[in-house]
Amino acid sequence: MNICVFLSAADLDERYTEPAREFAKLVGKGGHTLVWGGSDSGLMKVVADGVRASGGRLVGISVELLRDAARNDADEMVITADLAERKALLLSRSEAVVVLAGGLGTLDEVTEVLELKKHGLHHKPIVLLNTDGFYDGLILQLRRMDDDGFLPLPLDDLVHFAAEPADVLAYLES
């Protein structure tokens, strides 16, 4: 399975890197392909290193403005003209989307894929890995949107929340 991962390119502490390493190991050992933003820094590097070390394939989708940060040894690296093209290609090249801890770029990516799924423009599973409660606030907001009638379909049909890396792969492989 080609698994798109949205996550940070920042260097983060062990409470974020250890679950990311565990997730990456499961992706690689499962024979899956990582489709990611292509960066060779921060959490993106941690996951790419883990997938590679455990036998998985790496497909990077970077963007011209970040070309210098792109990983050199990916099995495939595509450089897009802009961030919009990058997001579209990340989604089109994947069969599932997993969201790990990240900043504004990650938040932009996850809200876009949720919006596209809401409108039926894709039916790929989206899993949010809530490492150390990082996404508690977002989950609370999404549940409020669901409860108050802002979503045209149930939240559970849009996104799955997971507390542990193993839960992510178990959901995607079921």
Helix share bin: 40-55%
- The overall pLDDT, averaged over residues, is 97
Strand content: 15-25%
Largest sheet: 7 strands, parallel
Which oligomeric state applies? single chain
**Computed Rg:** 15 Å
Strand order of the largest sheet: 4-3-2-1-5-6-7
Shape: globular
Class per helix and strand makeup: alpha/beta
**Which parts are unreliable, with pLDDT below 50 for 5 consecutive residues or more?**
none
Strand tally is 7
Helix segment tally:
7
**Terminus-to-terminus distance:** 12 Å
Brief description of this entry?
With 174 residues, the protein is an alpha/beta fold. The chain has helices at residues 14-29, 42-53, 83-92, 104-118, 136-147, 155-158, 165-173, and strands at 2-6, 33-36, 57-63, 76-80, 96-99, 126-129, 160-162. Helix 1 (14-29) packs parallel to helix 2 (42-53) and helix 1 packs parallel to helix 7.
Q: How does this model look, in words?
A:
- The protein has 174 residues and is α/β, with parallel strands linked by helices.
- It is built from 7 helices and 7 strands.
- Helix 2 links the parallel strand 2 (33-36) and strand 3 (57-63).
- The longest helix has 16 residues, at 14-29.
- The chain starts with a strand and ends with a helix.
Secondary structure elements and their pairing?
Blueprint: E1 2-6, H1 14-29, E2 33-36, H2 42-53, E3 57-63, E4 76-80, H3 83-92, E5 96-99, H4 104-118, E6 126-129, H5 136-147, H6 155-158, E7 160-162, H7 165-173
Parallel strand pairs: 1-2, 1-5, 2-3, 3-4, 5-6, 6-7
Helix pairs in contact: 1-2, 1-7
